[in-house]
Design brief:
The chain is mainly α. It is built from 17 helices and two strands. The protein has a two-stranded antiparallel sheet. GO terms for molecular function: transmembrane transporter activity. It comes from Nocardia stercoris.
């Protein structure tokens, strides 16, 4: 039985709290990525080019990434139980505004504001989950919470596409606004007081990857594969629409299959990462390269597109879970700070990937976005191999140095 503020928590309430944090993460991550599957109808309704519509993903990622180190530091005295409802309220109101927005400008500004809340919660959520349960079960709680990020990342786009196809893009945002309200109510009922712990000043957050070589190489590898992935995947619907297999129904099926594959990849990695996280990460990055090449070579046929999208989903789902576990392993005593850096790198990569992909799509055609992705994911494989071959003692030494150098504030 875990205890907070002198009040014991039953195992049931502890694990319910972990489940609610997982649901919160799923809500935040799908809110970020859902518009990718809605770019075509959204751009048409708001009278902007598809590449321009991609800015709603870009600006969301920029604010989530750039704001998080400062927001985590500035709120280091704030009880996390009080912080989460505020962030969910921003999500609920923001999705409602997007659903009824009469013009693209309002959508863009709203998404920018929502990004700050998203980045803030992404950085603190896993440590919250780990604190809800007794120490021996903390890693299991972290894995469950991480699944909210991993599954949300891979199913957010196909889920948005599926619901948007049935009810329209505005209704999709209304549904997500309601989802945020439901999760908010669950947070108020299940999450106990969680005074901030393991938080550091902003300057120490930025110093962490400089002092910690293991964290640094993980983040460079993550930036490469995320840049490549979202450079292509932001525009996967326009790409598929230009193939011989194109039909709205079949594209929706492909994106749903991708999401199912991502969930499967998350599950597979959850078992493999305990045995060899570095090798698991390298294999996942390699799968990304193969799936992209397969899509370029055989994606014109229904069977080829189906195989490629399935492999892409499995690989990306596995890579996401592996990279967060590698981040935790690289900086276990300053995990909230390390996740701030992870959130910064990951979300800026989403933003830049969407932006660069938009430039490729508008000037060289959507097919060029996949070649861009092949180049960057291949580079991530090279770095992953370097990680696999690197002595584990080096990472351990760096983590020890990080613990001594980074001053954790009470």
């Amino acid at each position: 039985m875990s205890t907070y503020g002198g009040h014991p928590l039953s195992p049931l309430r502890s694990w319910l709290g972990v489940a609610v944090i997982t649901a919160s993460l799923f809500t935040f991550v799908t809110t970020e990525l859902m518009p990718v599957g809605l770019l075509t109808p959204l751009s048409s309704a708001l009278h902007v080019a598809t590449g321009t519509a991609g800015l709603i993903v870009t600006l969301f990622g920029i604010s989530a990434g750039l704001g998080v180190p400062f927001l985590v530091a500035w709120t280091r005295r704030v009880n996390r139980r009080a912080l989460l409802p505020i962030l969910l309220t921003v999500m609920a109101v923001g999705n409602l505004v997007v659903a009824v927005a009469p013009n693209f400008g309002l959508v863009l500004v709203t998404r920018l504001i929502m990004g700050f809340a998203h980045g803030m919660f992404w950085a603190v959520a896993v440590s919250m989950a780990m604190r809800l349960v007794p120490g021996p079960h903390a890693n299991r709680a972290a894995a469950i919470a991480l699944s909210g990020i991993s599954i949300g990342t891979v199913v957010g786009i196909p889920l948005g596409t599926f619901i948007g196809g049935l009810a329209g893009w505005r209704t999709t945002f209304l549904i997500w606004s309601a989802l945020a309200v439901v999760v908010l109510a669950l947070v108020l009922v299940t999450i106990p007081s969680l005074p901030s712990e393991n938080a550091v000043a902003a300057r120490e957050v930025f110093a962490l990857p400089v002092r910690n070589a293991a964290l640094r190489i993980v983040m460079v590898t993550v930036i490469l594969y995320v840049l490549g992935h979202f450079g292509a995947y932001t525009f996967i619907r326009p790409f598929l629409e230009k193939t011989d297999a194109a039909s709205s129904a079949f594209i929706t099926v492909l994106l749903v299959v991708y999401g199912i594959g991502g969930a499967a990849g998350n599950f597979i990695a959850g078992h493999a990462v305990d045995k060899n996280p570095r090798a698991s990460f390298g294999i996942a990055c390699g799968g990304l390269v193969v799936s992209l090449l397969l899509l370029l070579g055989a994606g014109h046929s229904p069977a080829g597109a189906l195989v490629a999208m399935t492999l892409w989903g499995v690989s990306f789902g596995a890579a996401n879970l592996c990279q967060i576990n590698l981040t935790l392993a690289a900086a276990p005593d300053t995990f909230e700070a390390a996740m701030s850096i992870n959130t910064l790198g990951y979300n800026l990569s989403i933003a830049l990937g969407a932006l660069i992909g938009g430039l490729f799509a508008d000037h060289l055609g959507v097919r060029s976005t996949l070649w861009f992705a092949v180049a960057l994911t291949a580079a991530s494989v090279v770095l992953a191999v370097i990680m696999i071959r690197a002595p584990r003692e080096t990472g351990d030494h760096d983590r020890s140095s990080s613990r001594a150098d980074v001053a954790v504030e009470a």
